[in-house]
From TrEMBL, chain A:
Top-level lineage group: Bacteria
Main localization of the protein described in the UniProt heading: membrane
Organism of derivation: Jiangella mangrovi
Compartments (UniProt record): Cell membrane
Name of the featured protein: Multiple sugar transport system permease protein
GO biological process terms, semicolon-separated: transmembrane transport
Region feature (Disordered): 1-23
Family indicated by similarity: Belongs to the binding-protein-dependent transport system permease family.
Compositionally biased intervals (Polar residues): 1-10
CDD domains with a match to the protein in the record: TM_PBP2
GO cellular component: plasma membrane
Domain ABC transmembrane type-1 per the UniProt entry, residue ranges: 91-302
From TrEMBL, chain B:
Top-level taxon: Bacteria
Membrane topology: Multi-pass membrane protein
CDD domains referenced in this protein's UniProt entry, alphabetically: TM_PBP2
PANTHER family: INNER MEMBRANE ABC TRANSPORTER PERMEASE PROTEIN YCJP, MALTOSE TRANSPORT SYSTEM PERMEASE-RELATED
Main location (coarse class): membrane
Protein name: ABC-type glycerol-3-phosphate transport system permease component
GO cellular component, one term: plasma membrane
Biological process per Gene Ontology, one example term: transmembrane transport
Region forming the signal peptide: none
Family to which this protein belongs: Belongs to the binding-protein-dependent transport system permease family.
Domain ABC transmembrane type-1: 74-265
Length: 314, 279
């Protein structure tokens, strides 16, 4: 309400004055900009920036979740991490997990988007089904897939038995195979993100260009390779970066579907386990710091790509 | 002519197969979830499995409401997700309006900083947040959860809303000023209605973010009466009851708001996502 009074001084007279579009203000424009921005600024500062600062501090201490006092230990946490073989196993698992899931999401996502871009009856419903896995809570995804893939009672065993009668279906939830099942479930859950982003981009391609190519005798593959793919390229670059960041730091579905076994102990799971399994706050903070620094690098590259894309399309 | 026709029919054929495979792979888990929730015990572990049930049995739902605090968890989830949505959308709409109408030195830098925040992973934040909330007494509180989810919603919402606000021509507002409206009125009656699709899209995203989150709720809530639905469902599963009809009944009910949000705003959702998520 105070905004009302200060922006338009002498409000009743405004109607008679055609130059009311520039009302006399007591405060300059930047003041209102800063004022309107301040709640967002405080929220982001308080719940994202401040915790990061606190994280840096924690990572240099021996803080324990149930003990109130802690002391500085310098770089000990980091040194211990670099020496621990299981840390490097975690790094490897995380890179494989992110790399494989992103690659598969990308290929499948583009294929599905191209399919859903075609005109056919019931497209709205099919699009809904195509996007559904992304909207569901990860606990639901994890439980439904554990139930489907259950080695003794899951519908999956039946399907295997139908295709190869009498064969012993492999236990997809066993430590040997859980990593690969996790890859499949993650791809199932997150491919819609690619689908919807690519679909949005496809809609901006001028259809007359594609039509002209068809008239000139270009087949579907050539049209895709020479017309559609170059148009998609910038968006695909940014998608690769964004999805890689998200998959690299994915916690929920990894932990809920596959647990904390060494086969699936990605860096986020290791962080969680350190803090809430072993109560080692300082040591867990060091793992989180590794993730944080990597994210910072990814984000910088991502933003550069994004701005370059913007300049190209502008 | 026949060659063209032939090509067309071949493309259509691939399309049909592709769509059927997609619908089965994406849809079957949902069907199985819903079916399991009403399967009578005799059919549950039948081999070969039953793909339809002739005698739906709702005892899974009954057990869910009788033996667990499901309604309490649902209420917690609803309060937290709604609160986070309101806070986040109001805050980010104000900020988006400010950024597009009153650019000031440093507002561009702020936009970039917001993008950095958007890419932040909950797992990185949750460690120090746990420590800070413990000191501030915000563990086990709805307010703490609302603030946490709202601040995760703000960077994304602000990023997504900016193009919507930028697309509204300044002349529209100036016309309102000429008609005697002040800035608050013109924002409320002219600018925000124009940005409505974006506002709806970010509301849905923020609500879902809070509704489906597991990590923050796991760490920042320890009291049973304050648990949210995802935590409650995981704990039920871990209680090793493995009562699948009950678990799947809970899963079905958790999805209800998701489905409603999705159906209602699908149009805005795609528009919003296309406009803001990537570009």
């Amino acid at each position: 309400m105070s905004l009302t009074r200060t922006t338009t001084t002498g409000a009743p007279a405004v109607n008679t004055e055609p130059r009311a579009s520039a009302p006399r203000r007591r405060m300059p424009g930047w003041f209102w900009g800063a004022l309107l921005l301040s709640p967002a600024f405080l929220l982001v500062l308080g719940v994202i920036a401040a915790p990061i600062a606190y994280l840096v501090r924690l990572s240099f201490t021996d803080a324990h979740a149930y003990l109130p006092k802690f002391s500085s230990v310098g770089f000990d946490n980091y040194a211990a991490l670099l020496r621990a073989p299981h840390f490097w196993d975690s790094v490897r698992t995380t890179v494989w997990y992110a790399g494989l899931t992103v690659g598969l999401q990308l290929v499948l996502g583009v294929l599905i988007a191209l399919m859903l871009h075609q005109r056919f009856r019931g497209r709205g419903v099919v699009r809904l089904v195509a996007l559904a896995p992304y909207m569901v809570p990860s606990i639901v995804v994890a439980l439904v897939w554990r139930w489907l893939l259950d080695p003794t009672t899951g519908a999956y065993s039946w399907a295997i038995d139908k295709v190869w009668p009498g064969s012993e279906p492999p236990n997809l939830l066993s430590p040997n195979l859980i990593f690969w099942s996790l890859i499949a479930v993650s791809v199932w859950m997150f491919t819609p993100f690619i689908v919807i982003s690519v679909l949005a981009r496809l809609q901006t391609i001028d259809p007359s260009v594609v039509e002209a190519a068809t008239v000139d005798g270009a087949g579907a593959w050539r049209r895709f390779w020479h017309i559609v793919l170059p148009e998609l390229k910038p968006v695909l670059y940014t998608l690769i970066l964004l999805r890689f960041m998200f998959m690299f730091t994915k916690f929920d579905v990894v932990y809920l579907f596959a647990g904390t076994g060494t086969e699936v102990r990605t860096l986020p799971v290791l962080t969680f386990q350190r803090i809430f399994g072993e109560a080692r706050l300082g040591s867990g903070a060091a793992v989180a710091m590794v993730l944080f620094v990597l994210l910072l690098i990814f984000t910088t590259v991502y933003l550069r790509t994004l701005y370059r894309e913007r300049e190209e399309t502008a | 002519m026949t060659a063209a026709l032939h090509r067309l029919s071949r493309v259509r054929w691939y399309l049909v197969i592709g769509i059927v495979v997609l619908v089965v792979i994406n849809g079957f888990p949902f069907y199985w979830m819903a079916l399991t929730s009403v399967k009578p015990g005799t059919e549950l572990f039948a081999f070969p499995p039953r793909f339809i049930t002739t005698a739906p049995d709702f005892s899974g739902f009954e057990r869910l409401f009788e033996t667990t605090n499901f309604l309490t968890y649902a209420k917690n989830s609803l309060i937290i997700a709604t609160g986070a949505t309101v806070v986040s959308v109001v805050v980010s709409a104000l900020a988006a309006y400010g950024l597009t109408r009153f650019p000031f030195p440093g507002s561009r830098a702020f936009s970039t900083a917001i993008l950095y925040a958007y890419t932040f992973a909950p797992i990185v934040i949750v460690v120090p947040l746990y420590g800070m909330f413990r000191e501030a007494g915000l563990i086990n509180s709805h307010l703490g959860m609302i603030l946490a989810y709202a601040s995760f919603g703000v960077p994304f919402s602000l990023w997504l809303l900016q193009p919507f606000f930028r697309a509204i021509p300044g002349e529209l507002e100036e016309a309102a000023f000429v008609d005697g409206a002040n800035r608050v009125k013109s924002a409320w009656y002219v600018v925000f209605p124009q940005a409505l699709p974006g506002l709806i899209a970010v509301s849905v995203f923020t609500f879902l973010l809070a509704w489906e989150d597991y990590l923050f709720a796991r760490v920042l809530i320890t009291e049973d009466e304050l648990k949210t639905l995802p935590i409650a469902l995981h704990d039920l599963y871990n209680a090793s009851l493995q009562d699948w009809p009950l678990l799947m009944a809970a899963a079905v009910l958790i999805n209800v708001p998701v489905l409603i949000a999705f159906l209602f705003v699908q149009k805005y959702l795609v528009a919003g996502w296309g406009a803001g998520a990537i570009k």
